[in-house]
Amino acid sequence: MNIAQYERSERVFSSTGQYGLTSDNAKFFAYPVQHEGLCFSAHLVKQDGVFEKAWAIYAEAFTGLERRSRREQTLVMRHPRYRFSAIMHEGSAVGVMAWWKLPGFCFVEHFAISSAERSGGFGRRAIKLLQSHVACPIVVDVEPFGTEQNAARRVAFYTRLGFVYSGRSVTLPAYEGKPTAPSNLMAWGLALNGAGRERVLEMIEREVYGLHVAAVPFPSAV
Q: Could you tell me how far CA 137 lies from the centroid of its own chain?
């Protein structure tokens, strides 16, 4: 993870304002999104009670190799394309979603429901809310199918929601001080075959990890 670029960023967002945002990005980042009692909080920048609850869910759900350190998270939250949201229900945080609004698609980097709330259907409802909100293709990162029982369950979960699994594994850049590991991409509304997968991967590497200088044309939606 190239975090130096975020140390130079001056585009820090409030939870209610539109500082430095286009109208489209203001809608994506600065305001809560809700439907049928479930809500994505506005982009969390203040380390208040909601942030602490979201961070606790994030730290519980992902191993140290799979997530950012708190320092990295604090820096990346300044990025103009990144949103770190608590998933709220009846005033309580039941999950967390870390997502990127990239050119042509939304990339969900981390998504988890609290272990105490996983039987409530919040995961399915959260993804459906995201699908209706972003109005563009969505890409998620999962462990390769067959590596463990939880990986198989996650692939099945996204498949039921209309995502298509790319059978070829990819390796995303590692977080600070951590090793790389193979993963697979799944997409909703977007082809991930051949060149399309490579373009999506290069877009994620460039925008999320600061790699690749050349512009990458976006693959056609399906």
A: 13
Q: Is residue 100 within 8 Å of 81, Cβ to Cβ?
A: yes
**pLDDT digits over 185-209, tens only?**
999 999 888 888 889 999 999 888 8
DSSP string, 126-158: HHHHHHHHH-S-EEEEEPPTTS-HHHHHHHHHH
Residue with tokens 């604090």: 74
Distance (Å, whole) CA 95 – CA 93? 6
Helix ranges restricted to H, 22-85? 23-29, 49-61, 70-76
Instruction: Catalogue all structural domains in the chain, each as residue range(s) with its CATH number.
Output: 4-209 (3.40.630.30)
Q: How far apart are CA 111 and CA 126, in angstroms?
A: 9
Q: What pLDDT digit, counting tens, does each position of 155-186 carry?
A: 999 999 999 999 888 888 888 878 888 889 99
What is the per-residue burial (b if ≥16 Cβ within 10 Å, else e) of 117-153?
beeeebbebbbebbbeebebbbbbbbbbbeeeeebee
Q: Which helix (H) or strand (E) holds 93?
A: strand 92-102
Query: Minimal CA–CA distance to 111: which of 129, 124, 95, 94?
Result: 95
Are 219 and 196 in contact by the 8 Å Cβ rule? The answer is: yes
